[in-house]
Write a structure and sequence with these properties.
The complex is a heterodimer of chains A (about 220) and B (about 325). With about 220 residues, chain A is mainly alpha-helical. Chain A has one domain (about 1-210). Chain A has helices at about 1-20, 25-50, 55-80, 95-110, 115-120, 120-125, 125-145, 145-170, 175-200. Chain A is globular. Chain B has one domain. The chains are: A mainly alpha (about 220), B mainly alpha (about 325). At the A-B interface, helix 1 and helix 4 of A face helix 7 and helix 11 of B.
Chain lengths: ~220, ~325
């Protein structure tokens, strides 16, 4: 039962990451981030149930509040203020992105095989999912030009790292999780301010505007 | 090959051939009701077929035997799938033929027959439809295979009856990520292969958008009746496959008459419900631009690939 729910949650994490590449509307992408945050919290709860650890429940609550409520809320605000709700043209078109995602997932499986072999169990076998989400986050960061998409890519990357940490270590200590979360929150707030400044200066939030120096 | 087994195969073929036009009628009726129209009734496709069968087949000048045999190839290949796939019973005497690869290549054979016929007419529409159909088939076929792989990996056999029996034996597997991903991939491919929205609009004759209709534009009378019946059967076969691969409950595991009767009823119900759901879904969406279709199929290919990798790594 535990293994099945774990597999479902991990499958959901990967699927929401992939769907973020597929969708063009930023509102939908932010909604997928909420789903991913909830799934990540569910993963923490699941591990908490197995390890009988109250600390993990607290971590789960922290993850849920930060990744499913606060950060998507911040992104929604940016989106409402900025007005352009679509990733106009990514550097790599959607069809190729999806094929690249397939490739990245296979790479994640390939590189994590030695890690899984160290201690084969249900949780470590799902480790490639965390790595795949990390790769997808990198891919979004590299190929998307909208400032908000970049933030999404960064959050995807962080979700992947969190999932990998949960799966590899059967739960992270509360202090580590708190430190990481605060970092993340601060970074997203800074990026929000940056996006707002960009919009004031250029009228839109396309990263290509940042290529040359101006007065 | 026992007599009971032969009866099972005959029942299956009769259900698919007789029920396919009714399925199309049901889907049109659901759509009509949702759009606030009265609709022509579930039996209308059969009435259309009867009318077409009485008419003489007019063939364009200059077409060869390829044009004449296109509908027959489509019909025959679909008929073979209807006979061998485990729709009503898994205890079929043709069990060994019901291989995943065989069924997929039979599906492709029908597509190729019709596209060649479309090219053979030499008209602009025929060629355009054929080119589009081949594009979509080339993108959809790998996904069907991948989704099938994901299902066969856990059973260790690409035999369809074995896959269905395997799912019946361990029902919990239906909720595994591999199966769910495969189901999504398979659903997208079924929509593309059957020529439904958002890939192709089965009701349109608008020149810019039609795919399937463009290929069969020149057919008339008996030939058209065969094409229409075969297309309806193809839809029924694809829906039946997806229903039985992912929700196999109700399939007979023996050839006892009562079991066959019950399984037939359950199968008709399942396919009918799936068809109605598909028709409802179609009311709310518009046809996609042709250039976005590869995106959809790349997505479903990705799902298929993830399903295969998940069936190896997560299980």
């Amino acid at each position: 039962m535990f293994v099945q729910i774990l597999d479902l949650v991990c499958g959901g994490l990967l699927l929401s990451g992939v769907l973020m590449l597929w969708r063009r509307e930023l509102v939908a992408i932010v909604r997928l981030l909420v789903v991913q945050g909830v799934l990540l919290a569910a993963l923490a709860v699941l591990l908490g149930v197995r390890e009988q650890s109250v600390e993990l429940y607290l971590v789960a609550v922290g993850v849920l509040v930060l990744k499913a409520v606060v950060l998507p809320g911040v992104l929604h605000r940016v989106l409402r203020d900025s007005g352009d709700a679509r990733e106009a043209e990514p550097l790599v078109n959607v069809t190729s992105s999806l094929l690249a995602a397939a490739l990245l997932t296979l790479v994640a499986y390939a590189v994590s095989r030695p890690l899984v072999a160290l201690a084969p169990s249900a949780t470590t076998r799902a480790l490639p999912v965390g790595l795949a989400v990390v790769f997808l986050g990198f891919f979004v960061l590299v190929t998307r030009r909208h400032a908000l998409s970049q933030v999404v890519g960064f959050l995807l990357l962080d979700n992947g790292i969190a999932a990998t940490a949960f799966l590899a270590t059967s739960g992270v200590p509360l202090v580590v999780e708190l430190g990481g979360s605060l970092d993340l929150l601060l970074l997203v707030l800074v990026l929000q301010v940056l996006a707002a400044r960009m919009r004031l200066t250029f009228g839109r939030t396309d990263m290509d505007e940042l290529q040359e120096l101006r007065d | 090959m026992t007599a009971a087994g032969v009866v099972g195969v005959l029942v299956q073929v009769a259900v698919v051939v007789g029920g396919a036009p009714l399925l199309v009628g049901l889907m049109r009726q659901v759509r009509a009701l949702l759009e606030g129209r009265a609709g022509a009734g579930v039996g209308q496709p059969w009435r259309d077929l009867r009318k077409l069968l009485k008419k003489e087949a007019v063939r364009p000048e200059g077409t060869s035997w390829i044009y004449t045999s296109g509908p027959l190839v489509l019909f025959a290949s679909t008929l073979v799938i209807a006979a061998v796939a485990p729709f009503v019973s898994t205890a079929s005497p043709l069990d060994g033929v019901a291989d995943l690869f065989a069924v997929v290549s039979l599906l492709l054979l029908g597509t190729v027959g019709l596209t060649l016929a479309g090219l053979d007419t030499g008209t602009a529409f025929g060629g355009m439809g054929a080119s589009r159909e081949v594009t979509i088939a080339a993108l959809a076929e790998p996904t069907i295979l991948l989704a099938g792989f994901a299902l066969s990996a856990r059973v260790g056999s690409s035999n369809l009856a074995d896959i269905v029996a395997g799912t019946l034996a361990t029902p919990a597997q239906v909720l595994s990520p591999a199966t769910l991903l495969a189901a999504v991939a398979f659903a997208v491919v079924v929509i593309a292969e059957a020529g439904r929205l958002p890939v192709d609009n089965p009701a349109t004759h608008l020149e810019l958008t039609m795919i399937h209709e463009a290929m069969i534009l020149e057919y008339a009378g008996r030939d058209l009746a065969v094409v229409e019946l075969a297309s309806a059967m193809r839809l029924a076969v694809l829906l039946g496959l997806s229903v039985n691969l992912f929700v196999p409950w109700g399939v007979a595991t023996s050839s006892a008459p009562l079991a066959l009767l019950g399984a037939t009823a359950v199968f008709a119900l399942k396919v009918g419900v799936l068809g109605a759901v598909l028709a409802t879904f179609e009311v709310f969406i518009a046809k996609w631009r042709l250039f976005r279709v590869p995106e959809l199929l790349a997505g479903s290919f990705l799902f298929g690939l993830l399903a295969v990798s998940a069936s190896f790594f997560l299980a």
